[in-house]
Specification:
Elements (H helix, E strand, L loop, with lengths): L12 E6 L1 E3 L2 E6 L1 H7 L7 E7 L6 E10 L2 E5 L2 H7 L6 E8 L13 H9 L1 H9 L2 H13 L3 H15 L4 E3 L2 E3 L4
Antiparallel strand pairs: 1-7, 2-3, 3-6, 4-5, 4-7, 5-6, 8-9
Length: 179
C-alpha cells in the first residue's frame, strides 16, 4: 500500500477499536454510522487513507471491504501492524479519510516472468483474465515487491497452480477453480 505524504483535505473520522481476526486476517470493523461519515451511501470497497495511533509520518492507502448493512472491514496488513507496533487484540486509535485520489484497477505492470508463464498456460491465462480487477491488483502489487529468484520461483509455482484451477492456498486465501 502506498503511503501519501500528507493527509487528504477534510476532517478525518476518529475511532478506537480492538484488532480482531477474520480467518487469518487482522481487521477492525467500521460500523455503518462511521462509514457514512466517510462517504454516505458507499456500498463497494471503499478507498481510504488511514493513520494508526496518531503516528505523524505513517499514512496508509487501502480499501475497506463491505460486509453488509453498510459496515466495512478495515484489514491491517503486516506492514501497517509492524510500523504501528500493534497486533491482534490490541486497541488502536484510527483516523480515516475517504481517499478521493484513489485510482481503480491494477497499478503495477505484469512482470515478464509472470506474463511468460501465463502465455504458456491457457487455463491459467483464462482464469487470470476472469479475476476481478481488485484481485489482479493485489497480486501485481505483491509481485512488484518480489526480488529474489527463489521467491519468484516459489510464487510463480504457487500462483500458476491455483490459476490452473487446482485447489490451493495462496496469498492468505483458499483458491478453487482458478479464483
Amino acid at each position: 500500500m502506498s503511503q501519501p505524504h500528507q493527509p487528504p483535505a477534510g476532517e478525518p473520522v476518529f475511532l478506537t477499536a480492538i484488532i480482531e481476526l477474520v480467518g487469518v486476517n487482522p481487521y477492525v470493523r467500521i460500523v455503518a454510522d462511521q462509514a457514512e461519515l466517510l462517504e454516505p451511501g458507499w456500498r463497494r470497497p471503499m478507498p481510504v487513507v488511514v493513520r494508526i495511533n496518531r503516528s505523524p509520518n505513517k499514512l496508509w492507502r487501502t480499501n475497506m471491504m463491505p460486509v453488509g448493512e453498510g459496515s466495512f472491514n478495515l484489514y491491517l496488513h503486516g506492514q501497517m501492524r509492524k510500523a504501528s507496533q500493534i497486533s491482534v487484540g490490541d486497541p488502536v486509535e484510527l483516523e480515516l479519510w475517504f481517499d478521493e485520489a484513489y485510482v481503480n484497477g491494477p497499478q503495477h505492470l505484469i512482470p515478464a516472468w509472470f506474463q511468460a508463464a501465463l502465455d504458456l498456460d491457457s487455463a491459467a491465462h483464462a482464469n487470470w483474465k476472469r479475476l476481478p480487477p481488485s484481485r489482479q491488483k493485489e497480486l501485481l502489487r505483491y509481485f512488484d515487491r518480489i526480488k529474489s529468484s527463489q521467491a519468484i520461483d516459489r510464487n510463480l509455482a504457487g500462483v500458476i497452480h491455483v490459476l490452473r484451477g487446482n485447489r490451493g492456498h495462496y496469498m492468505g486465501r483458499d483458491w478453487v477453480d482458478g479464483k
